[in-house]
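Re-run with default settings, no changes from the original entry. Doing this only to confirm the output is reproducible before filing.
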Amino acid sequence: MTPDTTPSETATDMDLVDRIFDYLEGQLPRDLQAAGQLGQLRTQMRAEFAGARSYIPSVARHQRGQRIEAVLRLYNGRNAMQIAQQLQMSRASVYRIIKQYSP
């Protein structure tokens, strides 16, 4: 629980900034947390991104390119479901990649 949240708040009541910093507090060594800069960083982050709608993709940009290459390399015209299972993605994503990127 962070200083900005009350005990009655649940994870769904917290905004993205609070959730990110709760995660960081759990991951950072105690000596870095003790430096007291997390509260200051939280405030700076709110000021920087206030009012902005941000999208955080589930796959990093470089991984996306690798997945596209893998789909195009593996696809033989009939194995979309197998590719989806192998690459842990939806069948619809496989078809979308084929439609958008195949020559």
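The longest helix spans residues 61-74. The radius of gyration is 20 Å.
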